[in-house]
Every structure is written in structure tokens, then in C-alpha cells.
Amino acid sequence: MKLSKFNVFLYDYNIIFNTLTGYAIKVSDDEMSKLSKGEIPEDLKDIIEEGFSDQEFEPEKMIFEKEYLEPTLLLTYDCNFDCVYCFQKNFRKKGGVLDSVVRGFINYIRKNAEGKKVRVTYFGGEPLLEMKRIEEISKELSKELDYSFSVVTNGSLLTPSVLDRLNSLGLSHVQITLDGPREVHDKRRYFVGGKGSFDIILNNLVYAQDHTKVVLRINVDYRNVEEIKSLLLTLKEKGITKVRIDPHLVHENVFRNEYWDNLFSRDEEGEVLTKIWEFAKEEGFEIPQEVFRLGICAAHVDKDIVVDPYGYIYPCWAFTGNPLYIKGRLKEDGSVEYNGKFTSKTAREVWKGKCDNCPYLPMCMGGCRFFSVLENKGFDGIDCRKKNYEEIVKLIRYFI
Ligand code: SF4
Ligand code: SF4
């Protein structure tokens, strides 16, 4: 038996983690030393065979075997907020998704579910401005399919009654953002006109955390990094401890660059986020296993379309609104006209011949298509995140 090339050896913790199978094991000093030389201790043979032995990375097969169809619909480009770093600021538009696109989306799912579970993400702008559309689509799809959905929302409109309504329609979870304690958050994420949003979101969170799963997104840059601890302590004080913390670095977008000076470099990502996770864990918040997830995303999966309110299809959420990165158009009958650009196949294959022996390949797949574009390497370039993964995998120690 040969050891997998996707085993990561964390010598400081005597842990071996396999980035493809997600298996992690704690071993003795002696076992660690043997395994690092490729020798397999007799009493570990079974577990090594199951989770740490030689396997091929076959994204096509994984995508084919996926249990879910996971399309995304942007219900509007409009928003009741005016966040400092919003990448959609330049193409904010009143009004919601077109009728023909709603019909196209429902028809698309009917045609493509093929017995799979359907998990829709509603995105925006602020998707809860278009609550009626969530009702309309959910009622239709839940009649005939195993349907659930999530909403990426700023949280301001997620009152208890709206949440109850969403639950009755098939809500699986929500993503809400808080960027710091009140004085920090309110300088970054405010309503159109400038009014702070912290108190309203916090109130909604108190109810939400008991009635659905909440992913709490925290957008981090130089301006708020020192305040994240204070945010977590405030949440604890208010009894909001059931949310799953999800910190991300604020990143630049092809549309905007005036916020550039406040951003961490991409090389700092692993270190910054790991510190936040560690503090969150110490304070009793959960680290979601998704931190170690496989790198397959919407850009890699043809069927997981990301559709905007006008029916344009993009490789993933980060490209939405940019006419240069449209990959197709959804028609009312649920068929899609692709233009041959930014294909999932291209996204799935960028790593071939470049990253074949990298232990982080299953998590990374050659990096993020959006960042590759942002760094002028094109849609099929490599966006190497090795340094970040080397930090993030250390968090596996909390799961053993
Ligand atoms: S809530 Fe989201 S869509 Fe609205 S302004 Fe903020 S970042 Fe942009
Ligand atoms: S881009 Fe870098 S980290 Fe990602 S798979 Fe390739 S070599 Fe590994």
C-alpha cells in the first residue's frame, strides 16, 4: 500500500490530514516518524487504507456523483445598504428579477434536477427586498422536488416574522454579515443614507439563531481586524453563540479599487483568518468543517448556474454584474444558451500539469477563478494559495 500524496503532516501536533478524504488522525511520535518516511505501522494499516492511501483526484467523477443541484439566483441588484466595500455599488439598479427569468429558473431546475436534491441560494443585492419571488419560486419547486434554499442577506430585513415565513417555505440556513462591534460595523455597513445597521441586525440575530442555522460572515481588513475579538465578545454577552463564524478577507473587485489600501494581501489570508478562528474557538464558537472543504465551487459545475435578475449566467457570485464575464443566458423555457467562454471544464482543469503533486490540490484546485482574473492571470490562470492552506489546515487539531 502506498500513502496518498494528499496527506498533510502537521508535525507540531502529530496529526496527519488528508485533503481529499477529509480524514485526520493523531499518531505517536514514533508513528509520525515512520509515516513521514512512507512506512506504514502495522496497527494503523486499516485506517491508513481507508483514509490516507494512494487515491486519484477526479473532480469530474465527484461532480457527476454530487447529490445536489445547487443553482443561485440573484433576485435584485438593488440594496437597502450602501456598504463601503460593496463590489456591486457601480451597478446598483432598482427593481427585481424579471418574470421571464423566474419562469426560466423554475423550468431550468425542473429539467436538471434529475432526482437530485435541489438547494437554491438566493443572492443579491439584498434578496429579501424580493421576498415575494422567494415565495413564488419555493411554492412551485417544493410541490414536486426535494427543495430547500438559503439566503445571503445583510440581515436587516430578517425579522422574526420574515424568518418564520422563510422557514415555512423550506429555508435551510441564512448568511448574515457583521463586521465588528457597533461603532466599527456601522462605519462599514450602513443603510442607504448612512444610518447604522448593527442594532437591527443584532436584534434579528437573537431570534434567528434559535430558528435556523446562521452563518455569520465577517469581512476583515486592516480597518476592523483588531475589533473582531470585541465583536465576538459582544455576541457572547448577548447570548448569540449558536452562529457559525465565517471570516473572510475583503477583496478588491474588478469594478472598484478605491478601498484597496485597507486590504490585507492574499498571502496574509491564512494567518489572519486562522487567528480569528482560534479566538472564536476559545470563546466557544464552532469552527465549521467547511473550512476544510473540497475546492469544488459553482465555477466548476456546469449545472450549478449563477443567474442574475436579467437572466445572464456567470461563473460564480463574484463575477455577477460584470458584462465581460457572462458565460450564457437563461431562457424562459429553462434552456441555457452558452457563449463558450468561462466554461466549467476550463475551471476544472487549470491545475492539470501544474499542481498534480500538491497536497492541497483537492481543497484548492489551482485557486479561485475570480482572483486569477483579478490578478491579470486570466480565467484559466493559477491562483496559488499554498501559504494560506498551510495555516488553515492547522485548525484540524480542534476536530480530533
Ligand atoms: S449588503 Fe451586500 S449588496 Fe448591499 S451594499 Fe452591502 S455588500 Fe453590497
Ligand atoms: S495553486 Fe498552489 S496550493 Fe493550489 S493546488 Fe496548485 S500548487 Fe497547490
UniProtKB/TrEMBL annotation:
Residues 65-286 form the Radical SAM core domain. Its cofactor is [4Fe-4S] cluster. One of its GO terms (molecular function) is metal ion binding. Keywords: 4Fe-4S, Iron, Iron-sulfur, Metal-binding, S-adenosyl-L-methionine. This is Radical SAM protein. It comes from the Archaea. The keyword Transport does not apply. InterPro entries: 4Fe4S-binding_SPASM_dom (IPR023885), Aldolase_TIM (IPR013785), MoaA_NifB_PqqE_Fe-S-bd_CS (IPR000385), rSAM (IPR007197), rSAM_sf (IPR058240), Sulphatase_maturase_rSAM (IPR023867). Pfam families: Radical_SAM. SUPFAM superfamilies: Radical SAM enzymes.
